[in-house]
């Protein structure tokens, strides 16, 4: 018995379960059903929907820029210099402006005057070994005053000289406006085992020359300055202090159609608060490049990078009509359709020979023969609504729900 139970359980794993419907031959109910069906057809409510989109994003930026400054001299900038991280992900940063502090070495120098915790009047204000709060180094115990000034700043052990306070107001990398962003996006709807990607373009030469725009809505290559403009900003206003741009990719696919009809739709928005003028506005961070001189002493070039962070966000849903295949398209569709639908006819049609429920036998295998008086009670009924015959012994003991009364299915006393 136990073996039989396990065998039945294992075999049940290969069953396909679908709902069974009873077809009621009733004009009022049928009219209501067709009205609702029309609404669902317009809204595509007949489709099964998968919202568990799986996605992977790979980005590549291309472009070069040339600068000539006193801190760095003549220099060419390529992707390895201005894109962070270099491997390209759904979040990446493009440098547009920079404050460069070259030749920093670990030694002593005066803390900057705009750091409150670094201010002092005498040496006792600078406790040795104490880090300057929001400063650049560790106090040595000396208070450095210029001339006869009553107040000065603490001497610190730090990377000296300290970072330059102010930077250029014009974008350091002006050419960044014409850089291009290539977004490769792979998606999959696991429920329907459907995959697609933005690279599914048969004409490869198209990718070498296209730019996303009104005439090329499915080109995955974007001009950086255009993306900022579509997000409602201006490159020359945004580049000096940086900001955050969101690139949203929507995959809303009707999988009843050909796979080539499943295409991404792009939208752009600025995510940082551009209207708030605060010390935290924009987007920047610091990084350094380290070297050693001929004596083996380490020094570095500190860079405070301002730029534009891009966040690529992917959303979508796929819809597919499943039961259409089972009931209409496969070879044995008639067999499955008969099992799925059972017809129940109204009283008028029951009177026709060979139709309806009136032809059911009063007795048979598994049925007890009923007395004549009992049969008479079954035969007598009350005609209601749209021709339904409701036998007295089967009248409901509770009232019908209110929403059925609206459509004329009232229960008579």
From TrEMBL:
It is found in: Cell membrane; Membrane. ATP binds at residues 60-62, 180, 284-286, 304. One of its GO terms (biological process) is osteoclast maturation. It comes from Prolemur simus (Greater bamboo lemur). Keywords: ATP-binding, Cell membrane, Disulfide bond, Glycoprotein, Ion channel, Ion transport, Ligand-gated ion channel, Membrane, Nucleotide-binding, Receptor, Transmembrane, Transmembrane helix, Transport. Receptor for ATP that acts as a ligand-gated ion channel. Residues 347-413 are annotated as: Disordered. It is a multi-pass membrane protein. It catalyses: Ca(2+)(in) = Ca(2+)(out). GO terms for molecular function: ATP binding; extracellularly ATP-gated monoatomic cation channel activity; ligand-gated monoatomic anion channel activity; purinergic nucleotide receptor activity. It comes from the Eukaryota. Disulfide bonds join 109-160, 120-143, 126-154, 210-219, 253-262. Residues 392-405 have a biased composition (Basic and acidic residues). NCBIfam families: P2X. Functional P2XRs are organized as homomeric and heteromeric trimers. Homotrimer. Forms heterotrimer with P2RX1. Belongs to the P2X receptor family. Transmembrane segments: none annotated. Its main location: membrane. This is P2X purinoceptor. PANTHER family: P2X PURINOCEPTOR, P2X PURINOCEPTOR 5. The gene is P2RX5. Gene3D superfamilies: atp-gated p2x4 ion channel, atp-gated p2x4 ion channel domain. One of its GO terms (cellular component) is plasma membrane.
């Amino acid at each position: 018995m136990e073996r039989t139970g396990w065998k039945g359980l294992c075999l049940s794993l290969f069953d396909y379960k679908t709902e069974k419907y009873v077809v009621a031959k009733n004009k009022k109910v049928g009219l209501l059903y067709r009205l609702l069906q029309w609404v669902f057809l317009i809204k595509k409510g007949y489709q099964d929907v998968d919202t568990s989109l799986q996605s992977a994003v790979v980005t590549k930026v291309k472009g070069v820029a040339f600068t000539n400054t006193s801190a760095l001299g003549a220099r060419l900038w390529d992707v390895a210099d201005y894109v962070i991280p270099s491997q390209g992900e759904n979040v990446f940063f493009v440098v547009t402006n920079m404050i460069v502090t070259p030749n920093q070495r670990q030694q002593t120098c005066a803390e900057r005057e705009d750091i409150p915790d670094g201010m002092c009047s005498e040496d006792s204000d600078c406790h040795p070994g104490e880090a300057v709060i929001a400063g650049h180094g560790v106090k040595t115990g000396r208070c450095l005053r210029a001339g006869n000034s009553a107040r000065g700043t603490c001497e610190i052990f730090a990377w000296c000289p300290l970072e330059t306070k102010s930077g250029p107001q014009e974008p350091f990398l002006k050419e960044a406006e014409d850089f291009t962003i290539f977004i490769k996006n792979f998606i999959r709807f696991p429920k329907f085992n459907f995959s697609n990607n933005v690279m599914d373009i048969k004409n490869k030469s198209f990718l070498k020359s296209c730019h996303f725009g009104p005439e090329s809505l499915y080109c995955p290559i974007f001009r950086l300055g255009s993306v900022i403009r579509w997000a409602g900003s201006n490159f020359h206003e945004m580049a000096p202090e940086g900001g955050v741009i969101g690139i949203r990719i929507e995959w809303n696919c009707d999988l009843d159609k050909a796979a080539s009809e499943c295409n991404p739709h792009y939208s752009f928005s600025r995510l940082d608060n551009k209207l708030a003028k605060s010390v935290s506005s924009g987007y920047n961070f610091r990084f350094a490049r380290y070297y050693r001189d001929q004596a083996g002493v380490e020094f570095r070039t500190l860079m405070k990078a301002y730029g534009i962070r891009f966040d690529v966000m992917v959303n979508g849903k796929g819809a597919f009509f499943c039961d259409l295949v089972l009931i209409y398209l496969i070879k044995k569709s008639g067999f499955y359709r008969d099992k799925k639908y059972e017809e129940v006819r109204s009283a008028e049609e029951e009177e026709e020979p060979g139709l309806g429920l009136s032809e059911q036998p009063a007795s048979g295998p598994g049925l007890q023969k009923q007395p004549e008086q009992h049969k008479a009670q079954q035969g007598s009924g009350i005609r209601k609504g749209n021709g339904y015959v409701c036998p007295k012994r089967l009248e409901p003991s509770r009232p019908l729900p209110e929403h059925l009364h609206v459509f004329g299915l009232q229960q008579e006393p």
